[in-house]
C-alpha cells in the first residue's frame, strides 16, 4: 500500500510530474497507454526517468498529474513506488477529476497544476519543481535548486544548448551575462530571428563552449517556482507554462536559466524514441542505466534469467525472462519475457516483450501465432510492442524513404515499422 501524504512531509521542495499528455506523435505506441507509460530500455517506462531523478536528488514528495489513457500508468506507478509507513515520502497520482469548482479536462500544463494547486499548497514546501513525464536524461535537481536559491530567483528554467536547426523546434531563451532570462521566443523559424537569439560569446566561454559556437538556449520544460510566485502566476486563465506563463513571467519576476549540458532527449516522435532506445545497446551510450548513483527504478519483477541459444549478437540489450533460440541480433533492445524462435534475424529492432507467458501454444487452439517472434523471420528497423504475435517466415524490411502509412496489424511512422500492442502478424507476411 502506498503511503499517503500528510503534514509530516517536511521537504522544502515538492515535485510535480506532468503525465497527462496524449502523445499523438508517438502513436501507435500511445494507442492504449499515455506517453509516460510507454516502455523504455527493455524493462522501464518513460515515467521512471523523472521519478528516479527525483529520488536520486533527495526529493521524496512527488505528484504525477494524469489524464489520457492513464490506466497502465496508474498501475505501473502503484506497483513500482512504495514506501514504508515510517518514511515521510510518497509518489501519488492526481487524475483529472470533476469538482465543485469545475469539470474541465486539463487544458494544458499550467491548467493541470492550477486544478490541483490546493493539494500542493497543503504541504509546507517553499519550492515546486515541475517536470515532464516523457524525457530521457539523468539530472541532479539539487544543483538546479542550489542555483535557484543562491540567485534569489522567483523562477528558474532548465535550459540546454542546442544547435541552429534543432533550435527551430524549441522555445528559445535569451539571457544576460548573469543568466537572467530577458526574452523568450517559441520555435523561431527565420534565420534573422535566430541570429538575435544566439548565446553570447561571454556566456559560451563561461559554460566551457567555444566562443564562436552557434548555440541557443532551449527550454527543457523543467521549472522551479517559489511558492508565492507559482500561486501568483496561476491566478489567471492561462493554460500552458511554455506558451503562456513563462513569457508573461519574464517581465514580472526574476526568471533565471539553469544551463544543463548533459544528455537530454525529448522523446516526442517515433524516430526519436526508436533511436534513443537503440543507442542504449551501443558500447558508449549517451544515456546509461549503469551510472553509479543514478539508479533508474521501476517495478521489481520476479523473473528467471534469460535463456539464450546459439545466438550471434552485435550490440544487444537483453532483459530478464527471455527465451531466445538460435538467432541473429544486431543492435537490438529485447524486453522482458521476449520469445524469439530459431532461424530469425533482427536488426535495429526495439522489442518490448510481453506481460505474460502463455500456458500453451495458441496456434493449435485458435490458429494465431504464439506471443513473440516466430521461426525464420527477418525484421529490420522496427518497433515490436508488447504481446505482439509474429508468425513464421515474416519479413519486415526498412522503410526509410516510405511515407507514413497504416496497414493490417502495423503502422509506418518516420520510416519505422511499428507493430502495436497485441497485434497479430500471420505466417509469411511481408511488410
Could you walk me through the main structural features you see in this protein, from its secondary elements to its overall organization?
The protein is 20% helix and 29% strand. By secondary structure, the protein is α/β, with parallel strands linked by helices. The relative contact order is 0.12.
What keywords describe this structure?
single chain; 431 residues; alpha/beta; Spore Coat Polysaccharide Biosynthesis Protein SpsA, Chain A; UDP N-Acetylglucosamine Acyltransferase, domain 1; 9-stranded mixed sheet; 8-stranded mixed sheet; 12 helices; 27 strands
Secondary structure: elements and pairs:
Blueprint: E1 13-19, E2 39-40, E3 44-45, H1 48-56, E4 61-66, H2 71-80, E5 90-95, H3 109-115, H4 117-120, E6 127-132, E7 135-137, H5 141-150, E8 155-163, H6 164-167, E9 171-175, E10 181-186, H7 191-195, H8 201-206, E11 215-226, H9 227-233, H10 241-250, E12 255-259, E13 264-266, H11 270-279, E14 307-308, E15 312-318, E16 323-324, E17 328-334, E18 339-340, E19 345-351, H12 363-366, E20 372-373, E21 378-384, E22 389-390, E23 395-396, E24 405-407, E25 410-413, E26 416-419, E27 424-425
Parallel strand pairs: 1-4, 1-6, 4-5, 8-12, 14-16, 15-17, 16-18, 17-19, 19-21, 20-22, 21-23, 21-26, 22-27
Antiparallel strand pairs: 2-3, 6-11, 7-13, 8-11, 9-10, 9-11, 24-25, 25-26
Helix share bin: 10-25%
Poorly predicted spans: 1-10
What is the beta-strand fraction? 25-35%
Q: Would you identify the CATH H-level superfamily of the largest domain?
A: Spore Coat Polysaccharide Biosynthesis Protein SpsA, Chain A
Average pLDDT: 91
Helices, by number, come to: 12
Largest sheet: 9 strands, mixed
Total individual domains: 2
Annotated CATH topology of the largest domain? Spore Coat Polysaccharide Biosynthesis Protein SpsA, Chain A
Name the shape in a single word: globular
Report the CATH architecture of the largest domain. Alpha-Beta Complex
Quaternary state reads single chain
Q: How far is the first residue's CA from the last residue's CA?
A: 46 Å
- Determine Rg (CA atoms, Å): 23 Å
Q: What's the total count of β strands?
A: 27
The SS-based structural class is alpha/beta
- Under CATH at level 1, the class of the largest domain stands as Alpha Beta
Amino acid at each position: 500500500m502506498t503511503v499517503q501524504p500528510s503534514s509530516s512531509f517536511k521537504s522544502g521542495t515538492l515535485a510535480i510530474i506532468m503525465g497527462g499528455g496524449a502523445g499523438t506523435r508517438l502513436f501507435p505506441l500511445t494507442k492504449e497507454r499515455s506517453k509516460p507509460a510507454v516502455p523504455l530500455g527493455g524493462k522501464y517506462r518513460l515515467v521512471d526517468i523523472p521519478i528516479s531523478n527525483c529520488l536520486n536528488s533527495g526529493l521524496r514528495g512527488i505528484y504525477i498529474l494524469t489524464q489520457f489513457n492513464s490506466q497502465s500508468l496508474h498501475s505501473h506507478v502503484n506497483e513500482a513506488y512504495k514506501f514504508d509507513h515510517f518514511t515521510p515520502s510518497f509518489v501519488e497520482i492526481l487524475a483529472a477529476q470533476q469538482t465543485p469548482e469545475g469539470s474541465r479536462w486539463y487544458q494544458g500544463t499550467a491548467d493541470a497544476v492550477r486544478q490541483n494547486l490546493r493539494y500542493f499548497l497543503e504541504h509546507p514546501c517553499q519550492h515546486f519543481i515541475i517536470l515532464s513525464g516523457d524525457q530521457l536524461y539523468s539530472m541532479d535537481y539539487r544543483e538546479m535548486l542550489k542555483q535557484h536559491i543562491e540567485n534569489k530567483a522567483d523562477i528558474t528554467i532548465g535550459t540546454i544548448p542546442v544547435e541552429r536547426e534543432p533550435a527551430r523546434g524549441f522555445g528559445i531563451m535569451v539571457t544576460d551575462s548573469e543568466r537572467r532570462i530577458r526574452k523568450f521566443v517559441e520555435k523561431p523559424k527565420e534565420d534573422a530571428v535566430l541570429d538575435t537569439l544566439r548565446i553570447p560569446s561571454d556566456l559560451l566561454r563561461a559554460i566551457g563552449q567555444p566562443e564562436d559556437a552557434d548555440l541557443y538556449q532551449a527550454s527543457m520544460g523543467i521549472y522551479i517556482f517559489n511558492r508565492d510566485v507559482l500561486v501568483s502566476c496561476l491566478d489567471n486563465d492561462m493554460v500552458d507554462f511554455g506558451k503562456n506563463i513563462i513569457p508573461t513571467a519574464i517581465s514580472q519576476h526574476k526568471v533565471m536559466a539553469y544551463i544543463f549540458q548533459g544528455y537530454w532527449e525529448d522523446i516526442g516522435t517515433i524516430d526519436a524514441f526508436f533511436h534513443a532506445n537503440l543507442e542504449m545497446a551501443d558500447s558508449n551510450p549517451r544515456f546509461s542505466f549503469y551510472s553509479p548513483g543514478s539508479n533508474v527504478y521501476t517495478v521489481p519483477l520476479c523473473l528467471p534469467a534469460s535463456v539464450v541459444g546459439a545466438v550471434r549478437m552485435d550490440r544487444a540489450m537483453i532483459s530478464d525472462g527471455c527465451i531466445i533460440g538460435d538467432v541473429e541480433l544486431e543492435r537490438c533492445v529485447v524486453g522482458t519475457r521476449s520469445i524469439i524462435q530459431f532461424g530469425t534475424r533482427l536488426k535495429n529492432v526495439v522489442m518490448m516483450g510481453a506481460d505474460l507467458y502463455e500456458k500453451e501454444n495458441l496456434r493449435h487452439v485458435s490458429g494465431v501465432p504464439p506471443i513473440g517472434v516466430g521461426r525464420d523471420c527477418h525484421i529490420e528497423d522496427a518497433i515490436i510492442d508488447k504481446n505482439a504475435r509474429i508468425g513464421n517466415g515474416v519479413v519486415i524490411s526498412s522503410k526509410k524513404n516510405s511515407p507514413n502509412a497504416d496497414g493490417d496489424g502495423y503502422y509506418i511512422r518516420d520510416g519505422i515499422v511499428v507493430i502495436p500492442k497485441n497485434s497479430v502478424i500471420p505466417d509469411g507476411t511481408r511488410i
